[in-house]
UniProtKB/TrEMBL annotation:
InterPro entries per UniProt: Rossmann-like_a/b/a_fold, Universal_stress_UspA, UspA
Domain UspA: 1-146
Gene Ontology CC entries for this record: cytoplasm
Places the protein is found: Cytoplasm
Family statement drawn from the similarity comment of this UniProt entry: Belongs to the universal stress protein A family.
Keyword presence, Oxidoreductase: no
Protein name: Universal stress protein
Record's keyword annotation contains Cytoplasm: yes
Short name of one Pfam family: Usp
Annotated TM spans: none
Keywords assigned by UniProt, alphabetized: Cytoplasm
Length: 148
């Protein structure tokens, strides 16, 4: 049975579905859930802003939004009486999928439950798929959840 369920979230409807699915699985298995949010700070900067603007404005706003996202997910799970904790990680240009797999291994997760947009064809080639990379490189099972 699963005792530790890692759920990467990004605030999308698909990650909300993953949280709901993880709650069901955790209830069945009496498992603990860890919500993980990875901020790719490279997305929030063009490289042309002054360092103090990034340090004093952009980064603090993104960190606050990320903490609020994790708190909302935590509240959902706590309302369902699921033991939950959160983890926030920052990346600058690295693959989010790599960080997800690293954090799953470091925490000793038994399974990763994550949302997927289900892109195919050119959309997947152009956008890349963090879910696909997690599936291919994860040392533990991965449950992909599409939004309904």
């Amino acid at each position: 049975m699963y005792t530790k369920i890692l759920v990467p979230i990004d605030g999308s409807p698909t990650s909300d579905c993953a949280v709901a699915e993880a709650a069901k699985l955790a209830a069945i298995c009496s498992a603990r859930v860890r919500l993980l949010h990875v901020i790719d700070m490279a997305i929030y900067t063009s490289g042309f802003e002054q360092a103090e603007v990034y340090i004093n404005q952009i980064r603090p706003l993104e960190l606050q939004a990320s903490k609020e996202l994790l708190a909302r997910g935590q509240a959902v799970l706590e309302a369902a009486n699921i033991p939950v904790d959160t983890e926030l990680r920052e990346s600058v240009g690295g693959r989010v999928a790599t960080i997800i797999v690293e954090r799953a291994a470091a925490w000793g997760a038994d399974v990763i439950v994550m949302g997927t947009h289900g892109r195919r064809g050119m959309g997947r080639l152009l956008m890349g798929s963090d879910a696909e990379l997690v599936v291919r490189t994860s040392p533990v099972p991965v449950l992909l959840v599409k939004s309904v």
